[in-house]
UniProtKB/TrEMBL annotation:
Pfam families in the cross-refs: Carb_kinase, YjeF_N
Record function comment: Bifunctional enzyme that catalyzes the epimerization of the S- and R-forms of NAD(P)HX and the dehydration of the S-form of NAD(P)HX at the expense of ADP, which is converted to AMP. This allows the repair of both epimers of NAD(P)HX, a damaged form of NAD(P)H that is a result of enzymatic or heat-dependent hydration.
Keyword Transport tagged: no
NCBIfam families to which the protein is assigned, alphabetical: yjeF_cterm (TIGR00196), yjeF_nterm (TIGR00197)
EC number(s) on file: 4.2.1.136, 5.1.99.6
HAMAP family: NADHX_dehydratase, NADHX_epimerase
Protein name: Bifunctional NAD(P)H-hydrate repair enzyme
PANTHER family reported for this sequence: ATP-DEPENDENT (S)-NAD(P)H-HYDRATE DEHYDRATASE, ATP-DEPENDENT (S)-NAD(P)H-HYDRATE DEHYDRATASE FAMILY MEMBER
GO MF term (any one): NAD(P)HX epimerase activity
The protein's required cofactors: K(+); Mg(2+)
Native species: Rhodovulum sulfidophilum
């Protein structure tokens, strides 16, 4: 796992390094420029074979200063460089002004002209464009000053042109990944020290192209309050359950199903819980649906639950270690009573789909939740539970930093007292104590074929199975999100929901388990 930072966190890390005397601004800017050039030549090796031409777009802050360093370094390699500056040189920050002056000894500085730049890009003949206009310092839309340039860069990228953004594509919110109003698209984004939240959420990946993180010599230690980017688990994933133990030592998950003709989603969840390693999974269904469940399931146990009394009797078994409720469950009065009992059992509990809809209908719903609950909503379900947060998330931010999916789930987790997993290609996860993580099925981990009916039901089952095995809720949600996507990637295009649980053994083999 690695960290994702906000713009403010990155500024604080740089300021702390300079206060300690580890580096000054001039040194960091030089390292950043070197990192950009190294990343460009590594990503496009043919650029290092012969001197080519570059167009460098510099802005009025330190991102522009990085651009001046890159222009100088490319020129020293024999490149032909054109450079445009937005803003007055005498208003540049000191380190950027120093590098402006160093560049001025080598080449011309042309004033910003949106129309001229667009014409220049459309004319072609440029091998590399460097966006050093605003980067992570952008706090408002740039359409008014760079709208034609942004459109021309879009055409340039579509024609396989190479555009490198320094730190962030200008016009893209660093914290939320939202378009602030006109973004310069890139095919490669080189950021420093750690990746940024906005590169992995909302519109971020559509504008960033690919991400490279360049080391500029800052403290490698963790940043308080940062967001965890969920990656492949380590060997500890295989250490749950006693060696030589019996099935109950690996947990017992109880999944509640809906009525006849509506059990498919719960069966998918049960299969997910089984395949992720729960030692025992019981599917509880109304009597009318038992034959239907039995016709499709063999490894899961079946129990009849028609009413609250049946569930109460079942929950007397202390070996049931986690519950999953919601997929295909129904939203009637019977189901509402069963939900209340499940919540009152104080066992680890995953609420998904109909379970979330039922929760939203309860009076004071969050007063019934506890710290071992995991909510797994998609966007619509999130809006029913947290309408104000969803409305804020849907609105276009007037300026940066914009309200992000991470902000939304942190607020939702704090309000509800449960772990909240907001599903999507940019799945955001938060715990009530403020910890947050993101699993991004983007860039090299993209799995668009995962957008298939029933996939979310399997995710709920995977998380329930991990809870049953003793994983803490935040860890279970984060690990479940990674396993879910990895199973889809192992299977590949053509995936349907039934394939996800069956792909988990191959995922575990790939992890060396």
């Amino acid at each position: 796992m690695s960290e994702l930072l906000t713009a403010a966190q990155m500024r604080a890390i740089e300021a702390e390094a300079m206060a300690r005397g580890d580096a000054d601004g001039r040194t960091l800017m030089e390292r950043a420029g070197e990192g950009v050039v190294d990343a460009a030549l590594a990503h496009w090796p043919d650029l290092g074979t012969v001197p080519l031409s570059a167009l460098v777009l510099c802005g009025p802050g330190n991102n522009g200063g990085d651009g001046f360093v890159v222009a100088r370094l490319l020129t020293e390699r024999g490149w032909q460089v054109e450079l445009f500056l937005f803003g007055a040189p005498d208003r540049l920050p000191p380190d950027a002004r120093l590098n402006h002056d160093r560049w001025a000894e080598l080449g011309r500085i042309r004033p910003w002209d949106d129309a001229e730049l667009a014409d220049r890009l459309d004319a072609g003949g440029c091998d590399l464009v460097i966006d050093a206009l605003f980067g992570s310092g952008c706090s408002r839309g740039i359409e008014a000053i760079a709208g034609r340039t942004a459109a021309a860069l879009g055409r340039f990228c579509a024609a396989d042109g190479r555009v490198l953004a320094i730190d962030m594509p200008s016009g893209l919110c660093t914290d939320s990944g939202r378009d602030l109003g006109g973004v310069l698209p890139a095919t490669l984004t080189v950021t420093f020290h750690r990746a940024r939240i906005g590169q992995f959420t909302a519109e971020g990946s559509a504008f960033c192209g690919r991400i490279v993180v360049a080391d500029i010599g800052l403290d490698p230690g963790p940043c308080p309050g940062s967001v965890t980017l969920v990656g492949a688990p380590g060997p500890e994933i295989g250490k749950v359950g006693a060696v030589g133990g019996h099935k109950y030592s690996h947990g017992h998950a109880l999944v509640l199903a809906g009525g006849a003709g509506r059990t498919g989603a719960a069966r998918l969840a049960a299969r997910g819980a089984l395949r992720v390693g729960a030692g025992l999974v019981t599917l509880a269904a109304p009597g009318e649906a038992l034959a239907e469940c039995a016709a499709h399931l063999t490894a899961a146990m079946l129990r009849r639950v028609d009413d609250v009394g049946d569930l109460l009797a079942l929950l007397e078994d202390p070996r049931i270690s986690a519950l999953g409720l919601g997929p295909g469950f129904g939203t009637g009065s019977r189901e509402a009573e069963l939900l209340r009992l499940a919540l009152d059992s104080d066992r680890p509990l995953v609420l998904d789909a109909d379970g979330l809809s039922l929760l939203a209908q309860l009076e004071a719903p969050f007063s019934r939740l506890h710290g071992d609950c995991v909510l797994t909503p998609h966007g619509g379900e999130f809006a029913r539970l947290f309408p104000d947060l969803a409305e804020k998330l849907a609105g276009r931010p007037p300026h940066g930093p914009g309200f992000s999916r991470i902000d939304a789930v942190r607020a939702a987790a704090a309000r509800s007292g449960a772990v909240v997993l907001l599903k999507g290609a940019d799945t955001a996860i938060a715990a009530p104590d403020g910890r947050a993580a993101m699993h991004a099925a983007l860039y090299d981990r993209a799995a668009p074929w995962l957008a298939t009916a029933g996939a979310g039901d399997v995710l709920a089952g995977i998380v329930a199975g991990l809870l049953a095995r003793g994983r803490p809720p935040f860890e279970a949600a984060s690990l479940g999100a990674w396993l879910h996507v990895e199973a889809a990637r192992v299977f590949g295009p053509g995936l349907i929901a039934e394939d996800l649980p069956e792909s988990l053994p191959a995922v575990f083999r790939g992890l060396g388990l």
